[in-house]
Amino acid sequence: MNVAVLPGDGIGPEIIAQALAVLKKLELGLEFQTAPVGGAAYDAAGDPLPAHTLNIAREADAVLFGAVGDPRYDRLERAKRPEQAILGLRKALGLFANLRPARVHPELASASSLKPEVVSGLDILIVRELTGDIYFGEPRGIREAGGVREGFDTMRYSEPEIRRIARVGFEAARKRGKRVCSVDKANVLETSQLWREIVSQEAKRYPDVELTHMYVDNCAMQLVRTPKQFDVIVTGNMFGDILSDEASMLTGSIGMLPSASLDERGKGLYEPIHGTAPDIAGKGLANPLATILSAAMMLRYSLGQAKAAERVERAVTSVLQAGWRTADIHTPGMRKAGTEEIGRAVLQALN
Ligand code: IPM
Ligand code: MG
Which residues pair with 126 in a beta bridge? Predict the structure, then answer.
């Protein structure tokens, strides 16, 4: 099995190094090919997603991705910005289904900004559509109309796009709490009206799964009011982007959350949901656990190694139980540790 490793920018290389050490320790015979992506690739080759990097990703069985972006590149034209690398990979590889679990490790319930009783035991899965919506809709641009400039984007979803992500949501719910909440803005948007209609149709094929609908503004509110009411949330690209950041904070640290982006055959790109954290990059402070847990998701979903995935997840849990904490999740009385120290603790826990 071949894994493309794309560390990217900021803290990307540091956290990826720890996840790689974990994967190597498992001795599964995985082959790794590393390539630059994002700002790092722009610096090296003038392109955030060089053809060589895209090829490596295309040919691999799975992609392990760090993070991309840095304020240094904000002035570049859009096509050259680091974010285009991840958007381009999602589109080119057909990674339409983004799974973002938000689980509260009992050890970290006090790190949440919400009351422990509101979040302890929380386990929700956001299924975000990833290759459509206003992110990719055409036309888009900035034009001049009647002497004033205006920016415009197009929100659109086709029926098959809605159908296939709805199925991913229902299938996932079947393996969990058997409840899907579809999130839209059907009181205002045509796109959402079609979304709701198609999701409701698909639900008929899953009589064992309960479907509810919720407007996105209400969902944003319910997530901080009573987040445990949710099992699986299925939603479009834009709403999913926003809600998954919100859900991540319920867990106490965005530094803990992995994600998987899957195509129709189960090939996937795995990345922590946090960004490049330029403020702490290179200082050895970043939390590598989201990336290590992303590697575990990769073992489970793309590499057929469910046992190894569980081993890694158990190791992470035991590291938390032993009190190891990076600065982002540190609370008084716990052992404060840096990126490498946490990585070493996970390796030891694997023994
Ligand atoms: C995410 C990120 C990306 C997105 C950015 C970096 C383009 O916020 O993965 O959630 O908006 O999808
Ligand atoms: Mg986001």
Answer: 100, 233
Q: Do residues 246 and 235 make contact, with C-beta atoms less than 8 angstroms apart?
A: no
Answer yes or no: CATH 3.90.105.20 is held by domain 97-257.
no
Q: How many CB atoms lie within 10 A of CB 31?
A: 10
The 10s digit of each residue's pLDDT in 54-112 is 999 999 999 999 999 999 999 999 999 999 999 999 999 999 999 999 998 888 888 88
Q: Is 246 in the pocket of ligand 1 (CB under 6 A)?
A: no
Q: Is 1-96+263-351 in CATH node 3.40.718.10?
A: yes
Which residue's C-alpha comes closest to atom 5 of ligand 1? Answer: 83
Residue range 195-222: mean pLDDT, rounded: 98
**pTM reported for the whole predicted model:** 0.94
Q: Count CB atoms within 10 A of the CB of residue 332.
A: 5
Q: Using the structure block, give the residue that is written with the tokens 């888009």.
A: 140
Neighbours of 264 (CB within 10 A): 11
Q: Write out the catalytic residue numbers.
A: 135, 185, 217, 241, 245
Give the number of other CB atoms < 10 A from CB of residue 123: 15
Taking residue 297's Cβ as centre, other Cβ atoms within 10 Å add up to 22
Mutate to test the pocket of ligand 1, among 68, 70, 78, 86 (most ligand atoms within 8 A of CB): 86
In angstroms, the CA 246 to CA 249 distance is 5
Q: Which residue has the tokens 């699986």?
A: 232
Q: 240 in helix, strand or coil? A: helix
Tokens 């009647």 identify what position? Answer: 146
Amino acid making up residue 143: R
Each residue's pLDDT tens digit, 230-262: 999 999 999 999 999 899 888 877 888 999 999
Query: H or E segment at 100?
Result: strand 97-103
87 in contact with ligand 1, CB cutoff 6 A: yes
**Domain regions of the chain by residue span:** 1-96+263-351, 97-257
d(CA 75, CA 86): 18
